[in-house]
Amino acid sequence: MRVLAERTDAQLVGAGDVLIHCVAALDNAGVGAITFLANPKYRSQLATTRASAVIVSPRDADATALPKLVTANPYATYARVASLFHPLQPVAPGVHANVALAPTARVADSASLAAYVVIGERTIIGERVCIHGGCVVGDDCTIGEDVTLYPRVVVYPKTSIGPRTIVHAGAVLGADGFGIAEQAGRWIKVPHVGGLVIGADVEIGANTTIDRGALGDTVLEDDVKLDNQIQIGHNCRIGAHTAIAGCTGIAGSTRIGRNCKIGGAAMIAGHLNIPDGTVISGTTGVLDSIREAGMYTSAFPILPHREWKYVASLVRRLRTLNDRVRALERDKPEQGE
Amino acid sequence: MRVLAERTDAQLVGAGDVLIHCVAALDNAGVGAITFLANPKYRSQLATTRASAVIVSPRDADATALPKLVTANPYATYARVASLFHPLQPVAPGVHANVALAPTARVADSASLAAYVVIGERTIIGERVCIHGGCVVGDDCTIGEDVTLYPRVVVYPKTSIGPRTIVHAGAVLGADGFGIAEQAGRWIKVPHVGGLVIGADVEIGANTTIDRGALGDTVLEDDVKLDNQIQIGHNCRIGAHTAIAGCTGIAGSTRIGRNCKIGGAAMIAGHLNIPDGTVISGTTGVLDSIREAGMYTSAFPILPHREWKYVASLVRRLRTLNDRVRALERDKPEQGE
Amino acid sequence: MRVLAERTDAQLVGAGDVLIHCVAALDNAGVGAITFLANPKYRSQLATTRASAVIVSPRDADATALPKLVTANPYATYARVASLFHPLQPVAPGVHANVALAPTARVADSASLAAYVVIGERTIIGERVCIHGGCVVGDDCTIGEDVTLYPRVVVYPKTSIGPRTIVHAGAVLGADGFGIAEQAGRWIKVPHVGGLVIGADVEIGANTTIDRGALGDTVLEDDVKLDNQIQIGHNCRIGAHTAIAGCTGIAGSTRIGRNCKIGGAAMIAGHLNIPDGTVISGTTGVLDSIREAGMYTSAFPILPHREWKYVASLVRRLRTLNDRVRALERDKPEQGE
């Protein structure tokens, strides 16, 4: 415990010589495990956990007699403790015998390329990069040091990925955006000649897609965190430290500020500006630019289906209700108040 | 027909010696085909179908003079009949010459591994498993007997898949969840050390993603059916026999009961409980736990765009409308009623 | 400029001998670049662009003194100009040494198959087809001439793809649809024995999924354009020249007309009809068939979160508001008007 407290700058309360050998959740921790309370929903489990120690906020410190790390940010402290027990595995360097490596590609000696990986012409793979099975990296890409590409990631040509970035399986980086011009009832494809620039310390979820720019680049700044199944359109710019939850879609040319938090299944239209520090709730549709940071939501309230049918029909006829109120106001008898 | 009736426990009405050699849809069936009516939308096609026989419910039995199987559940009976005409193809056992098989992996003799498959250390592949081209299965996985992985499925390490489960192309099973802790405006990654446990008879759609647990496992119980492009967050538990339609997202740590039906593009927030037997309509956002089983919906009614603009502006100003009604109520002259 | 005007049938205004060697966006064009103004949001950049020429509509022609191509449809003209500067790269024909080609597959001499591609039995690959690394094409498929499959596309058996169609990375074409029949609380899988027929000049985005038919085919007609992460259910028919933006889901057996435009993250239920020329806004849920072409929208207006909470609670209680207005109307004193 003493070591954990030192490494995380948390305050140690209780026996400092308890031996901790793993992390675990409140409800299934056992002897030797340290657990944490971050979400107040689970506070009642604090009394019954069989963990040997716990990470809590000052507010919850009195609620348990266990040895504890007290910290203003228990989830972040837990993340650090868990990383101590589960350090990143060092990559075994080397190129698998069955890799399609273009003659002009440059791969660092400390990088690891697994089976059935394809690397294009002039692409540069940095130190300690780990590329899992079945990834395809196109021509003229730059993969920064300590990057991890999980299996079956596709990186289109001319994409650049910054150091320490992690890309989960099935993600597609740098495909053509949805650029089509209508003429006489048919579609003409707009060539996508821009690139995709991904910063350092970014994490990209499984099966997420990020399009290249039509002209100019699509940009993800440093420390952007994307969950699974997200779609980012061509020429978007996502500011540093912005986190976006799963199933969210962002249409082309939209600029999202720094330190934004965007909930799951949000949908943001194209050519918009979202300022730094904005919070968008899950399932919210953003159809216009936002001028002022804050938390924004659009979601029809959930109801039992029959009740919803009735309410939805009233919403449809809100104009009528409004007209009826106006008529009542007009017809209101004069009063002396 | 007689054989079909016996195999499906349906009631045979009409000539039992009609020869049936295929299944077909109402509107393009021909001689020798058996068709079915399950969706009342298509009832009018019953009169004009050129099928040789039909599967109907007792309610629709009089609407056709064709030989028929009468059953309370025509769609299920059709599914059984279609399976008789289209049995699962037996797998040709064997490992393709070009498979990257870790030395400690154990593959059953009756299993089939196609080209460019990668199998990790200590992973166990059961009897008659069929792994299509380009799949990547990580270390320490267990793939139960008769499982099918369609092309390019990725299975992260320490994932377990139960017997007879089918996983469609591009699905990603067991990626890290979206666990990040904020500290001083930056994100710290939370290690994902839990696993993913998938039951028996599960089906998982194309490009669906299911994250592993952060601590403890993400669990799909037996006979869960997932459509395409679904996202299931870390530490979710989906109860047995629950079916979820495409594009739905379920955030982390949510528990969905047994025998639930969740419509397409529904979005369910994290840390919620949904009881057994709940029905969630398509496009519905669930932001709070549901206490009682039933059918729930949230969806703004669709309108012609101009009308929508007007209605949406009224919704925005509902507070004003409410205040106006309150003012009218306050100012209402006393009445003798 | 003169050449560009001739090739695009646009009207040349200003010096025709300006040398143009690239295309660029208004805000980062330099000497030698031609740019364009199509979205009025960017009109102010016309005054400050450092491009050597510009493509504009007659309405904007006076707003710049630069040499220009004046055309009723600047975006389409730009698309043509950009294609002149960025012609499609001719494919280097040949089959990579490491391709799993079934003995009965027929591959045109001019086709290009990259590393780790799998081609099934009896499948036909047309002239100048380009199949990138890691694609898996099943048995009995037909891939028309000049088709491009980007890396890791999966094509299930019995799928047909028309000439010049482009499929982006990670797309899954022809997986089983979500057909399950409930019986006694369990699910029976409905065999999917139909096919998938994709027309000519179609474009399909990254990680998009299109299911095969259960009975009969799923059909995409010519010149259909699909963005990324779209889900098309079994037995849908999408009419020619229809364009669908990212993250949209279309449930099974729905028929979408020709020349429709469907916004991002729209969700369309199953068994519906959408007429030719319909426009569906982004994030709109379509739960019933549409009878008349037009633009349709359903979206709860976005609000600051606190305001949304209040408005959402009023929506929930719209029935009460309606009742209160009715009571006021009933109690209204008789008037002489």
Distance between the termini of chain A: 71 Å
Broad shape of chain A: flat
Uncertain parts of chain A? none
- Name the CATH homologous superfamily of the largest domain in chain A: Hexapeptide repeat proteins
Classify the secondary structure makeup of chain A into a structural class. Answer: alpha/beta
State the domain count of chain A. 3
Question: How helix-rich are the residues of chain A, as a percent range?
Answer: 10-25%
- Total strands of chain A: 38
At the first level of CATH, the class of the largest domain in chain A is Mainly Beta
Main interface pair?
A-B, 75 and 70 residues
Query: What is the C-alpha radius of gyration of chain A, as a whole number of Å?
Result: 26 Å
The count of helical stretches of chain A stands at 4
What does this structure look like?
The structure is a homotrimer of 337-residue chains. Chain A is an alpha/beta fold and 337 residues long. The first copy, chain A, has 3 domains: 2-85, MurE/MurF, N-terminal domain (Udp-n-acetylmuramoylalanyl-d-glutamate--2,6- Diaminopimelate Ligase, Chain: A, domain 1, 3-Layer(aba) Sandwich); 94-296, UDP N-Acetylglucosamine Acyltransferase, domain 1; 304-337, no CATH class. Chain A is 13% helix and 28% strand. In chain A, the strands form 5 sheets. Chain A has an 11-stranded parallel β-sheet with strand order 6-9-12-15-18-23-26-29-32-35-37, with no helix packed on it. The longest helix of chain A is centred in the last third of the chain and has 14 residues, at 318-331. The model of chain A has no long low-confidence stretch (mean pLDDT 95). Chains in contact: A-B, A-C, B-C. At the A-B interface, helix 2, strand 38, helix 3 and helix 4 of A face strand 20, strand 21, strand 36, strand 37 and helix 3 of B. Strand 37 (295-297) of chain A pairs antiparallel with strand 38 of chain C, so a sheet runs across the interface.
